[in-house]
Structures
1.
Amino acid sequence: MKIAIDGPSGAGKSSLAKGIAKRYGIVYVDTGALYRAIGLYAQRKGIVLEKIGEICSLLGDLEVSLRYEEGEQQVFLFGENVSGLIRTPEISAYASAVSALPAVRSFLLETQRKIARETSVVMDGRDIGTVILPDADVKIFLVADDRDRARRRYEELCSKGLNASFEEVLSDMRKRDENDRERDIAPAIPAEDAVLLDNTGFTVEQTLNRALEIIEGKISK
Ligand code: DC
């Protein structure tokens, strides 16, 4: 079984995908973590956002991988577990910038497809239904009102003790979503056969229940 969950940041893709993975006993793959790890690498290499293309010449030596420890996905950069370092606003901006580079996207393509060939997955990202798994059994494009999405991100950052204002989170998120949606390669738009799920005002449980209805409906066909 292959399930694709795409949509903008903060729409609740990861909570939903985790719920689906648990329900069906399949593997949850958070593909954004791969772009974030490359973003972290670019930042560590001292590349500034305006010259992000410089990362392309370093991809030949780059090692990024996903592993599962006690059911939780961990992302490794040259063997170092960087899962705890990639969720800051700075690395979010780097991840969005590197994700617009065709060389980065083709570098990560096989890593993602390989996992889905080996096991049943629910994969979340921006181009899973359109590019990575065009033959997925179910494709859901999850959206929510942008203030709702920014509020979730804001609360997540506050709970980690990171300092940010709500307005800052909202404007960063709008900027990144625009980058992700407007880029030339693999833009974050729904696949033609994706089901749009707007979860504005929904709880995590309500979103999961609606998604399970969509999945059961598709699979029973
Ligand atoms: O889902 P996320 O916020 O962790 O993703 C980080 C960035 O990576 C985001 O700006 C979009 C990009 N991304 C992408 O282009 N394609 C994916 N499949 C996953 C993430």
Note: The chain has a mean pLDDT of 95.
2.
Amino acid sequence: MTPIETKQLPEHVAIIMDGNGRWAKMKGLNRVRGHQKGAEAVREIVTFSREIGIRWLTLYAFSEENWERPAHEVQALMKLLNRFLKSELREMQENGIGLKTIGRTEKLPKSTRQILFDTIEKTSSNNSMILTLALSYGGRQEILDAIQKIAAQIQKNEITISEITEQFVSDALYTAGMPDPDLLIRTSGEYRISNFLLWQLSYSEIYITPTMWPDFGKNEYLAALRDYQTRDRRFGATGGNRKK
Ligand code: FPP
């Protein structure tokens, strides 16, 4: 039996996992310990999402701006990511979880790219849940890449300007083929979007908790989902005239 009412469960949950550094500092530990504990929270939330029937889970694991962090911290994050991908492959296969990635992944170290694309390939036929890791991701960069792609199609006379609809733009983003997030969760109490899924979050419900990411577990996740289930989503329309 699932611990939550399955009707009106969000189809797509996106999470800004923030507060690893502060969690570590509060405990007198170094930041890397915070990221290690954060990776454990990722495991728990991925498994639980699949268990309760979330179809799409998108995690902001490394932003374009995160490259500015000290080299040793970036290295530690990449190492953690490599370890996570290696250790979770079995879990993903057993539970039908497919892996995807969005972002400028060509900037990732070679070893990470290799494990990442190997895992994506091996899990490509899994479809119980799609786990998308945003890596070297920035929302403005994504929109910029889409504009350049579309402009090149115009320049080559492959499309006309009037063919550029909202759907056309959506299809030019890294998230092409994915539904927009229904729910955005942000931990650590910051009221910011931080360059995450700028186009896609237009009508998402937002849940912000002061809990630091390493402490974010099943119970708090359930609280966010239950809160979402109480929301009246109007998509800019009136009560009797809404999209879903
Ligand atoms: C924010 O904490 C978190 C990140 C920079 C990235 C998230 C990374 C993980 C959860 C660990 C590894 C990921 C995977 C997928 C295994 P912060 O350092 O910005 O915290 P602060 O704002 O308190 O400094």
Note: The mean pLDDT is 96.
3.
Amino acid sequence: MRVITYGTFDLFHEGHRRLLERAKALGDYLIVGVTTENYDDSRGKLNVRQSLMDRIRNVQESGLADEIIIEEYEGQKVQDIQKHKVDIFAIGSDWLGKFDYLGDYCTVVYLDRTKGVSSTQLRNETAGVIRLGVIGSGRIAARFVAEARYVSGVSVEAVYSRRFESAKAFAERLELEWANENVSDLLKHVDAVYVATPHDTHYDYARQAIEAGVHVLCEKPMTLTRAQTTELFELAAQREVVLLEAVKTAFAPGFQRMVAVARSGSIGQVRSVDATFTKIVKEGRELHGEDGGSISELATYPLLAVIKLLGTDYTRVTTHSLRPEGSEVEVYSRIDIDYPHGIASARTGIGVKAEGELVVAGSRGYVYVPAPWWLTEYFETRFEDQSKNKKYYYKFDGDGLRYELAEFAFMIRNRTPESFKLRAAESIAMADIIERARTDAETFD
Ligand code: CTP
């Protein structure tokens, strides 16, 4: 009898060993499927600690598998079972009922899960939980706390808000341990903070946290000037803490794949990027004051696409903005960014609605990402010869904040000062373009 089972097998433990032993005992040949990182990502299993190779080694060293295969996509089990002539599919009882559909192809057996041990638990124990504080108690902060539940190894424990009443209400509603009256108190309780306050306060809060040796995940735009963003990164490097700009798109699996496909030569040389992000805002601080306007509010997303696709060696930034009569701020802007070998245009609007699409044009073809491209669930590569067109689909879980948090936690845990998904130089370039665009904006009434 041929038996098959599947798992992630991260930080191989007693529960895994016992599962494999019993699975093997069901027959005389055991095939074990180990999940790829990509598959785990796509099914929302973030924070797996060991690489695929290490996890395969774990299974190999157990001496229980006669054959090891890789599980890389949804639906693969149906194929594997037929291809490998499997008689019995075995899996832990935490999956009870979930694989009954495989009964059409073989016998399905659920084995009792070993109590008191799991990879999730081990991940928390071995590295300790990262204690997080939230600065700010607005809508985005609340969404962040909800999303943090999907990332293992982190726990949101404290909140600070300018108004203590709001912090208290927030802590109560979201069941956080601490509501703090000042930032320095909050910094005592935590290893890392998420800064989710109005733009003009980011710099001070981030600085204070870094100086206290606390890691910082800072809402976008980190600051509105090149000088301030540069200074924060320099300070973080000095203090050896992680500083990351919370641009969720940068960490989303679909967006990363889109950038990789576009830059792999499949559409030739990338020559042009057109990215648009608009949102109708009827009221709120975006419409007022010095830091208001569509550029400070929204430019980070289109600029991320521009910088990821064309780089940071731009030579010129020219901006056209629209400020209707009676408006305190620009409500629609087009930022043109010139490169030695390409041109880009980032459009933002808070009082104008446009199609939020992204087009990456190359010398052989182009990538088309429909709205909402910043969530990147889908994109196409398109060519003169349409028979070469290709469609790509990805999953984007929740509202995406879990991806940036998972990356932030990974960096802290592995003492990685920089993520290739969003480098310091890229955040600095975005701040630089935002600063120039806001200063240079040509205004038409
Ligand atoms: N398993 C088990 N007993 C445990 C833990 C896991 O029998 N205490 C089984 C699972 O049911 C599955 C296999 O081991 O059949 C591989 O599970 P995997 O997802 O890799 O391990 P977990 O420890 O459950 O991982 P996580 O905590 O990340 O969900």
Note: The radius of gyration is 25 Å.
4.
Amino acid sequence: MQSAAIALRSKGGRIGFVPTMGYLHEGHMSLIEAAREKAGKVVVSIFVNPIQFGPNEDYERYPHDFDKDRSACEKADVDCVFYPAGDEMYPRNFSTFINEETYSKRLCGISRPNHFRGVLTVVGKLFNIVRPDFAVFGQKDAQQVAVIRKMVDDLHFPVEIIVVPTVREEDGLAMSSRNHYLSRHQREDAAVISQALFRAKEMVGSGIVNTDRVEAEVSNILQTKRRVRVIYVSIVDLRTMEARREIVPGESLLAVAAWVDEIRLIDNILL
Ligand code: PAF
């Protein structure tokens, strides 16, 4: 891949990179489109990264369909799909990890203690393998974006980070490969997450800046659905993921994680 990247670059322009775990949906396609608009060459990686999953999480059953993903990439005019095997990325003697110690410990970092260490390690490796000029990530994974930006700053990766808005289903549910796990009833209940986020945005639009008030309203709305259990509802600084007492327009993010039965979903909205 490193040689291929050098060859791609010599053929013209910047390399735009979209790292994914596959099972591509419209959200991923919007990242690819954004890369296509700004880059001469686009590389997509497809790798379900084992080290970002906790022991009781869904690594074993994470959905995959490489042939479908490859044809979606072909249609989207992707120049190169990088699809490494697990033992190429993590040979048996692999022992170096990237750990961010502040932003990654908040929100999802509380219930998924090694998740961002796994994400940063694989993203760092992928940046060194693909050598992109810029990489594109989705706003849906706002904490992942914050933690990757921090790694890029702290470790001087010469990669620009571009963030693309969340793509939603018609009922507002943020697109995610994990939506595939939801039954029809779970799916109906899951729609409450985006409804609660939109309600919060309305409250802020009407002039409310007290984070407790907005968080309480969001929690109440989420609790109206039998299958939904809140993991966190938190208004944080968009850049650091630190909890805020007051909403600062354009700088505050409302982040939510919730179980819908046994399926863990996250979503967020900029306030
Ligand atoms: O967002 C994802 O799909 C993954 O966390 C990433 C960035 C591809 C790393 O495995």
Note: The longest strand covers residues 228-237.
